[in-house]
Amino acid sequence: MAELLGIIAPIKKFLSNSDEDIFFSINGEKQIVCSLAKKRTYRIPDFQREIRWSCDNVAMLIEDIKTKPRFLGNVILTKHSDNSFSIIDGQQRITILTMILSAINKCHGQEIETICPCKLIIESFIGLTNVLQACFDVTSYTKEMFATDKLKQFHKYKELWDFIIDSDEIKYRKKAKEFVDNLAECTFNIVINESDDVGEGIRYFIDVNLKGKQLDIEDIFKSFLFKNDSGKEIREQWYLLKSTAAEIENSKMDYPLLKLLEHYFLCDLYRNNKYKGMEFGTDFFLKKQYKEDDEIYRAGTHLIELINDKSYMKNSLIHLNEISHLMLQIVNSDSTTSEIKDIFSGQNKKKDLDDIELKVIHNIIGKILKDTNILPKALLIKYFSGLLFGESGKSKSNIRKIYGIYLFSVLFSLFENKKSTDVLIHILKGNDTEWYKELVNQIEDYFTDERITDARLLAQYKFGRNEKEEDHRFRCKSLATIYNYFINAEGQVKIRNGKMNDLYKFITNDEVFSIEHFIISESKNRVILVQDNKEYTVNETIYKRYVNNFFNFIFIDRETNSLLGNNWLPKKMEILRNKKIECEYSKMIVENLSKLQKEFEERGGEKYKDNLDLFFTRDYKDVYIEYTRSVLKKIIDRINSYKKQIEKLG
Q1: Is there a smaller number of Cβ atoms within 10 Å at the N or the C end of the chain?
Q2: Residue 39: is it exposed, middle or buried by C-beta count within 10 angstroms (0-12/13-18/19+)?
Q3: How many alpha carbons fall within 13 Å on the CB side of residue 47?
Q4: How far apart are CA 627 and CA 319, in angstroms?
Q5: Predicted pLDDT at 209
Q6: Does residue 617 register a pLDDT over 90?
Q7: What is the rounded CA–CA span in Å between residue 334 and residue 145?
Q8: What is the DSSP string of 432-453?
């Protein structure tokens, strides 16, 4: 580490675009400790975080400074030979103070003595320098400027600028003069690392932030990434990934950047046997000590330091960019585009999947991606990695592994617990030949009596309360999909013979297969109609618990759906007796509701309100659990029926 120089200095000297000497007094004599040359540049390196301050942060800073001069904390710099300084710590404050001084100069530069700030260059947004010097004049907004905005920060800077320029301390001359006078006397504790080595600066940045003020996980990851590789290509791939992650954030897919990275490394790293036994956390630091050959890595070592391979990290970002771009395309498209078709096309076009099956695959991938349950999405990273970069590539058998992933994701949502999460992570760590076998084994493990017992509580309490209704619709229709059309046999999950067109119709035709809240009707005021159209208001707690439960839905044609209205269960069952139900899952649900129907009917009559209140409070939970247990048993038996037939023949 190079020699460090530290001194308390007035902000006026630090920020002014002029020759400045900073003195230190010893025994009454002033000695020059540091000289800052005119036309110096302050740079915010690309390993730094993007602008994070809000308008509230700016308001607090202005409020502090307007009352009296303040000590504004530490600023850590790396000095370079070209009269520039990289800001290692303090970039948010320096950026905002530069913007404030630019705003005051714009409003009152000819009327009051102010501070002309040094040039500020933000490496992740080079074009902002000209925009800031032009005080956000619209004529400075160019395509070239926006092209340099690698992290899409312009609108954030513009929001902060508009807030600053509209503040009383900037708008009004007298207040602006008082503010500048106070700011000139404010101080920083400036620490200068006099090394011209970029890597040295990043190492110091990491050291400062790990031992002092904490960065977030993303900032630390990026810092180690850029420390490991100072090349241009790794930065381009990082900014591309950040841009895609921002698009994902604004799409129907919930998949944060850090989860994308974590899941990619879980899927890819363990393909190399040397990493078996290595565990890293969601912060990308090792959970425990790990030994590789004669090298020992202590707990707390960052994953990028352990990997220590520029080529691997660059290729990882390239691959993850391709995968995340593909996932975003699928989520944002209602049908298979030509680019998506190309992804699932092999070299031999005659052996490609037909259009209907491609549309089915596109639809079910979209359902997995749009579900707010994030962890099962990691299986798609495993899946796409195999298709795009694996040795066996885009064979039909590889493409059709998506059916197993879809079935697993539905079951995972239903049975999810700590053990299930550990099992899924174990699947992700499997190599190219192991992971799908592990997936199918886990599907079969779900199909046991023990799992059904677990589901008794999960189905009752987990679903229907704190999640989006759209998730319940996705998951319930997914459950109906696997019941109607999926089989598990011969180590694979498949679509039933001759049922692909029917499956496509089920997942796309909402006129024939509209969703109905069957047992507890969906209603803004929680009202259901009992005998002779008498109104009964379901208790709010009961309503929230059950209305969006997995097993409260059926799928029927829209005309029949409208006839059911918000009637109570016995009336709905009566209406359906004379109606044709095309969905096999819905038929099964209705057949399993005979006991619940009788329970409702017994609580009719003049005292129906008291009877139903007591039923929901005391007995409904047990009757409903018995019903869900029966439904789960039917689902399991049906999906496994083909496997049992094969076993009998064998």
Answers
A1: C
A2: exposed
A3: 28
A4: 46
A5: 57
A6: yes
A7: 34
A8: TTTHHHHHHHHHHHHSSHHHHH
Whole-number pLDDT of residue 208: 58
d(CA 472, CA 479): 10
| 3-class secondary-structure state, position 463 | coil
Token digits of residue 427: 């699947």
Task: Look at strands 119-122 and 84-89 and give their pairing.
Answer: unpaired
Q: Higher model confidence: residue 645 or residue 544?
A: 544
> Is the full-model pTM beyond 0.85?
no
Tokens standing for residue 134: 């032009």
The type of residue at 261 is L
Question: Which pairing describes strands 119-122 and 41-44: parallel, antiparallel, or unpaired?
Answer: parallel
Q: How many residues does the chain have?
A: 650
Nearest to 371 by CA among 463, 499, 235: 463
Cα→Cα distances 372→327, 332, 466, 468, Å: 15, 16, 12, 8
Q: Are 201 and 193 in contact (CB under 8 A)?
A: yes
What type of residue is 484? N
What's the N-to-C CA distance of the chain in angstroms? 71
Does the pLDDT at position 200 exceed 70? no
Residues 49-103 pLDDT 10s: 889 999 999 999 999 999 999 999 889 888 888 999 999 889 999 999 999 999 9
